[in-house]
Amino acid sequence: MSKSDVSSAIVMEYEENLVEKKINKAHFPEGIVEGNPCLEYIKHIIFPWFQEFKVERFEEHGGNKTF
Q1: Structural domains of the chain, with CATH
Q2: For residue 13, how many C-alpha atoms fall within 13 Å in the half-sphere facing its CB?
Q3: What own/partner pairs with CB < 8 Å and gap ≥ 24 does 2-11 have?
Q4: Is-above-0.85 flag for pTM?
Q5: Which residues sit opposite 54 in a β-bridge?
Q6: Can you tell me the distance from the alpha carbon of 22 to that of 64, in angstroms, rounded to the nearest whole number?
Q7: Is 48 exposed, middle or buried (0-12, 13-18, 19+ CB in 10 A)?
Q8: Residues 44-61: tens digit of each pLDDT
Q9: Which GO terms describe its biological process (predicted)?
Q10: What DSSP string describes the chain?
Q11: Cβ count within 10 A of residue 17
Q12: Cα–Cα distance between 41 and 5 in angstroms, integer?
């Protein structure tokens, strides 16, 4: 989700389904918090509007998790 890579950038004008597609394709680097674009998006866009954030995962990947 970098603006230097236009195919992965997310801008405010995008429709919800396009944002969802791009986030689903995003790579969440394990153990990296500082500068993690996915976590930054959640922190600045999701949490100000919603009380929780749910990650749906297969059981073999630890199951669902709510933050």
Answers
A1: 16-66 (1.10.240.10)
A2: 0
A3: 2/37, 10/41
A4: no
A5: 66
A6: 20
A7: exposed
A8: 988 999 988 898 889 998
A9: tyrosyl-tRNA aminoacylation
A10: --TTSTTT---TTS-HHHHHHHHHH----TT--TT-HHHHHIIIIITTT-S--EE---GGGT--EE-
A11: 8
A12: 16
CA distances from 22 to 7, 10, 12, 28, 51 (A): 9, 7, 13, 12, 22
Summarize pLDDT for 14-34 with one digit per residue, the tens. 888 888 888 777 777 778 888
In contact, 22 and 40? CB cutoff 8 Å: no
Is the Cβ–Cβ distance between 54 and 62 less than 8 Å?
no
* Phi, psi of 45, deg, nearest 5: -110, -45
